Amino acid sequence: MVTRLLPALSILLIACVLPLAEAAAQDERPLSVRRAMAKAEESMKTAQASASRQCGADFAFAFDWQGFTNDDLKEKRAASYCEAAFSALRQVCYDDLGSQAVRARVESLVCGFSENRLVSLEEGILRFDLNFTDSNNQDFVRSFLEDAL
Q: 15 — phi, psi (to 5°)?
């Protein structure tokens, strides 16, 4: 029973705590950066809805803004990099077997920044830490998912 609640508690943490921490961090950033962050979050809604529809799931999504610099957020499109993870989910869900595997193991996506591109799946949370130098993020995440699911 407790192990069944862990993924739900993880989603609750993402849905409640991370946005509170992010709101505090956002308030300290310049208006131009806060606007870029809001635009990125809005942009992700389409990718989130498309992946949810393809996989027959209702994925939660959050940015982990802490690793992103103000310059990165103003000059680069973080959402276009993060969208690659939702595109990878859609690719995995091209058939019933993939959709079932994703629905069984993936409940949410968190996108952050790291000097070294990383992807992990723990307790229902698919975490993708991008960097702005590596390419083929969609293939990177898809390959990970194909091996992890």
A: -70, -30
Q: Is the per-residue pLDDT at 20 higher than 60?
A: no
- Say whether 114 sits in a helix, a strand or coil: coil
- How many beta carbons lie within 10 A of that of residue 134, not counting itself? 11
**Number of helices and strands (H, E) in the chain?**
7, 4
Q: Which amino acid belongs to residue 33?
A: V
> Residue 14: what pLDDT?
58
Q: What angle do CA 75, 80, 84 make, to 5 degrees?
A: 145
Mean pLDDT of the region 88-113: 97
Smallest Cα–Cα separation from 39: which of 84, 73, 5, 89? Answer: 73
**What does 31-89 look like in DSSP terms, one character per residue?**
HHHHHHHHHHHHHHHHHHHHHHHHHTS--EEEE-GGG--HHHHHHS-HHHHHHHHHHHH
Q: What is the pTM of this model?
A: 0.81
Residues whose CB falls within 8 Å of the CB of residue 83, separated by 6 or more in sequence, listed in order = 43, 44, 47
